[in-house]
Design brief:
Number of strands: 16
Distance between the termini: 26 Å
Mean pLDDT: 98
Low-confidence stretches: none
Number of helices: 7
Bound molecules: ligand Q0Z
Structural class: alpha+beta
Shape: globular
Radius of gyration: 18 Å
Helix content: 25-40%
Length: 286
């Protein structure tokens, strides 16, 4: 990484330029909860997320082209094609949770989609919906209507991003459901390549970009436990932390339990032993 130029930091990832056409995306072991990055790392979290993203990129290439060029041997770094990113977050919801539930409760709609009356928190939607959001540079992404999103990217781009997002979600949600995980919702980021073609970028279908729920505990009518972060959230609630910076240090049992949940998600979804991934990250690409 001697001549990689640092371009930016996300909450838990770093982005570098390798050359004019290629970027390096590095996933750290940092974890955030209630929008705050905690001082304690979860060992291997970055590898799990990188491996899962690569797995989905490899299996969805027939639906949509993606930015993945190579996985580095460290298992946490992805070489990718440099794109011109669309200024919208492409969110797909299959279930009513988070801001979708909040918007539904106050308006009966989510991003302009009118939903049936009487739905409960975490209910499955009649069909997945595309609920775009703006990219906030600071603070929270804001849900927008399809018309607003189309005004930002153009009507044709919007229609294409919606169609691909729904198709990607449907494929992954069905795949995951058969392996005991509900993907309640997910966020995609698309960009265009030099030829103007739409390409899936960033990370895809990871627990950091999606809500993963354990299917065997699914019980609509309230919030669902998070597949990956529930031990962290439970611990944070118990400490009485006010959810502003700085967050609490995590005890070792919470770290171990959380690491085990990430590894479990990886193994359930990919069918690949995590040890094998660590030895050779390219096993996810098969
Ligand atoms: C992704 C982000 C991160 C900070 C830009 N293939 C691409 N081409 C152009 N730009 C991006 C990508 Cl993935 C791109 N981000 C999000 C990631 C740290 C910000 F690791 N920003």
């Amino acid at each position: 990484m001697a001549d990689a130029v640092h371009l930016g930091s996300g909450k838990v990832r770093e982005l570098y330029a390798l050359d004019a056409e290629r970027l390096l995306l590095v996933a750290s072991d940092r974890i955030s909860t209630f929008d705050v990055v905690l001082p304690t790392d979860i060992p291997d979290k970055g590898r799990v997320l990188t491996g899962l993203s690569a797995f989905w990129f490899a299996r969805t290439r027939s639906i949509c082209a993606n930015h993945l060029l190579a996985l580095r041997p460290d298992g946490r770094s992805t070489e990718c094609r440099r794109l011109s990113m669309l200024p919208i977050e492409c969110v797909v919801r299959g279930y009513l949770a988070g801001s979708g539930w909040k918007d539904y409760r106050t308006t009966g709609e989510v991003c302009g989609h009118r939903l049936p009356a009487g739905m409960k928190e975490s209910d499955k939607l009649p069909a997945p919906i595309f609920t775009p959001a703006t990219k906030a540079t600071s603070g929270h992404d804001e849900n927008i209507t399809g018309e607003q999103a189309a005004a930002l990217v153009g009507a044709e781009r919007f229609a294409e991003a919606e169609r691909l997002s729904i198709a990607l979600y449907q494929f992954a949600a069905d795949y995951a459901r058969a392996r005991g995980i509900i993907i309640a919702d997910t966020k995609f980021e698309f960009g265009t390549d030099r030829d103007g073609r739409l390409v899936l970028g960033d990370e895809a279908l990871t627990p950091d970009s999606s809500r993963f729920w354990p299917a065997d505990q699914y019980a609509p009518g309230g919030p669902q436990p998070s597949f990956d972060k529930q031990y962290v959230r439970d611990f944070c609630e118990k400490t009485g932390w006010n959810k502003t910076y700085p967050g609490p240090e995590l005890p070792i049992d919470v770290v171990r339990g959380t690491r085990a949940r990430y590894v479990e998600a990886f193994e359930k979804l990919t069918g690949i032993a995590f040890d094998r991934y660590v030895k050779d990250p390219t096993v996810t690409l098969g």
